[in-house]
Design a protein that fits this description.
Order of helices and strands: HHHEHEEHEEHE
Shape: globular
Distance between the termini: 138 Å
Structural class: alpha+beta
Number of helices: 6
Strand order of the largest sheet: 1-2-3-5-4-6
Radius of gyration: 40 Å
Helix content: 25-40%
Number of strands: 6
């Protein structure tokens, strides 16, 4: 009988110890001891209040980084130091030249490279009927219906630059516009490139002066201005 009572007391003691053990309780998995390893449920709980702060996903952080790396568009044209291709020529007119004569330009202009395969457009803009010796044709004109302003730039391979300059000057049509006519035209050679400006008197004077100024340091040889009309 004594042995039975002792066994009962021993079992009761074991049950009491188990009930008071720190390993019991369903919330024990939420406890992170000092210096322990954080699991996914506590990662980001910086203030210890049991809530994980939402600072944005990794995709959001990457998006922010990408945005900071983007460069803002500062304008349609960029100043160039040398004219080596058609894009440089467009920028030379749109930035180097036009920045020096803004007050003399039409309200709206469009500067573009013509395709050497589009002879209709080339002939309309230059009155030339072939592209022998021509690398690129750049045209900048007023986009208004009653405009009479035009800048034509021929980039040549240097084999017949002077001949092309004469042909361009002789053939250019000051009345090519339906509702307007240019009063003056002047041309200049820059190395192997040719620039012809057409418009009213003061406009041509200002723009061709800007061309000669902008060409210094960009081109090695700047020719003399030749008035071909007016």
């Amino acid at each position: 009988m004594k042995h039975f009572a002792f066994a009962i007391l021993t079992l009761a003691f074991i049950l009491l110890v188990a009930a008071c053990s720190p390993m019991s309780g369903k919330n024990q998995t939420d406890t992170v001891p000092d210096g322990g390893i954080l699991d996914g449920s506590t990662l980001g709980d910086h203030d210890g209040d049991g809530h994980v702060e939402d600072n944005g996903s990794s995709d959001g952080m990457n998006a922010g980084s990408d945005k900071s790396d983007k460069k803002e568009d500062t304008g349609a044209f960029t100043t160039v130091k040398k004219v080596k291709d058609a894009d440089d020529a467009v920028n030379f007119i749109g930035a180097n030249v036009y920045s020096l004569c803004r007050d003399s330009l039409p309200v709206m202009t469009e500067t573009r490279v013509l395709s050497n395969d589009d002879m209709d457009a080339l002939t309309y803009s230059t009155e030339l009927e072939d592209t022998d010796g021509i690398s690129d044709v750049i045209v900048s004109e007023s986009t208004l219906a009653d405009g009479s302003f035009s800048v034509v730039m021929l980039r040549t391979d240097g084999t017949n630059t002077e001949s092309l300059a004469r042909r361009l000057a002789k053939g250019i049509d000051p009345k090519k516009w339906d509702h307007a006519s240019a009063g003056k035209a002047a041309a200049i050679t820059l190395d192997d490139d040719i620039v012809l400006v057409m418009g009213d008197d003061e406009q041509v004077d200002d723009v061709i002066r800007a061309v000669t100024t902008a060409a210094v340091g960009v081109y090695d040889r700047v020719g003399e201005v030749r008035v071909v009309l007016g």
